[in-house]
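Q: Could you fold this chain for me?
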Amino acid sequence: MSRKLFRLAPLALAATAALLGFVTLAQASSHREAPFITTSPKVDGTDFYMFRSYEANRDGFVTILANYQPLQDAYGGPNYFQMDPNALYEIHIDNNGDAKEDLTFQFRFNTTLNNGGSGQTLTIGGQTVSTALTQGPGTISSIKDANLASAEQYTVTLVRGDRRGGTATAITNAANGSAVFDKPVDNIGPKSIPNYAAYAAQHVYNVNLPGCATPARMFVGQRQDAFAVNLGTIFDNVNVPLSAIINRANINAFPNTIGDKNVTTLALEVHKDCLKSSPTGDDVIGGWTTASLRQARLLNPSPASGYQASEKPGGAWVQVSRLGMPLVNELVIGLKDKDKFNASAPSGDAQFASYVTNPTYPQMLALVLNNGVGAPTNFPRTDLVTTFLTGIPGVNQPHNVVASEMLRLNTAIAPVPFAQQNRLGIVGSIRDGGTDFAGFPNGRRPKDDVVDVALVAVMGGLCIANGTTNAFGFGTACNPSAVPLGATSLELHDGVDQAVVPLLPGFPYLNTPISGSH
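A: Sure. Below is the predicted structure, expressed as structure tokens.
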């Protein structure tokens, strides 16, 4: 059933406060968020987006973007940032509210050396010798260009039901029926790839999904990181005075610390009816992304010639990365449980309940701002449980929901064109008197400034804006008297504007990656 929005304004405002109180300070999405994942950057999920497509004539579709491999320097050759062939990358969809996956898109990668396993070769002193670089001496312009030394390819399997025990079927190319897809090489630079945008666009595929009558679109490749944050300053105990981050004139005054970084994106665009349990089923879907490695591996001290031949993995898949809503593992889950959270599933989220009901970061933020004003005192944070773990009633809460952490989207809410999108999503529309209910926390679009919305919420700003205790069924959870910072909390921001990050007008939406040279 569709969720009606003409009575949404106060509910959405309070609910957004609840959500973002949970994600609290929200300063770095999911880059290097847990101890173990820092040792395995190829399987580190950085950002997860899910939104109704706002590209012209695609409004019946849902776009899903899962980013991996954080903080890629564009000049990071000669091997750049291939995906791990020994890993399993997955995007999960729950379409009935039970906190278990109903659809899983599984991505597997493989890189091979061209020219019979030799890569590029040159004749040196009468001998044929393999060269050291990713590309040959010429330019690259096509998918299977002869000047590429290696070929990175991938397959995608759609699993219905349990991710390990369900029915698995290959996703195929609508043009030729192939189940193997080519991934573009990273943006080496303009001398090697004169028109990277055109080269990468050749890797956008129309694909057939088993059980779905409408073809989907798919792209996997390097993109410019679309997340914007004043990262170093924030993690340095918010090394700016409070006055600098409550003045709206400073909303884009600080540098976007990761503005020169790339990521690797797994992008799908699927008709909304193919993600629901049935065309007439619940309009709300939940999504999250994971990565898994084999339980064991052997390292060969004398590897054979070939590509990445030093490792021999085996055993069951072990999940090592998890991401639904942004910022949870960095700033909500305690340090001792970060690896545990990355290995967990939404159905087991009750074990992390105390991090939701009694979040630490509001108090930490109050302490590091050092302005004599404390954090909100309305404990336990039942508003956060209601909103973040079950979805917002009337917005994106599914029927018969099981409390769990994931990104939830109401597929019945129409998309808003990019130019009309409010950078603060639902809360911005409420504050500004707008009608954009298609953004965060109802899903997440690339333009949505989750950092700024979270800063307002963590110090109780949305309770001040609401001004009414117990108006939305949250008890005292949105009580203005429990907000020591008062109306000042409404002005909080991190000094970096998410809305000015360059993006594409359509699929895959994230911008062409930064070039390795200029």
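A (continued): Confidence is low (pLDDT under 50) at residues 1-28, 468-475.
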